[in-house]
Amino acid sequence: MNIVRIAGVSLLALLWLWLCSAIIRHGGGFNLKNIFVIAASGIIIFVPLWKKYFRQNNSHLEK
Q: Biggest alpha carbon distance in the chain?
């Protein structure tokens, strides 16, 4: 993985953390709805990136 991809994922993670803190501060505090929104958004954003860039390629095992 090259430096540009690492920088992009890091920037996306920092932006996501900033938005999560904004949800906590301005969205009614730390409650179950906000926890669900933060968890769901993290899954939607980071699971596809994990599968694309960080997971080992096991295509030789599928044959």
A: 51
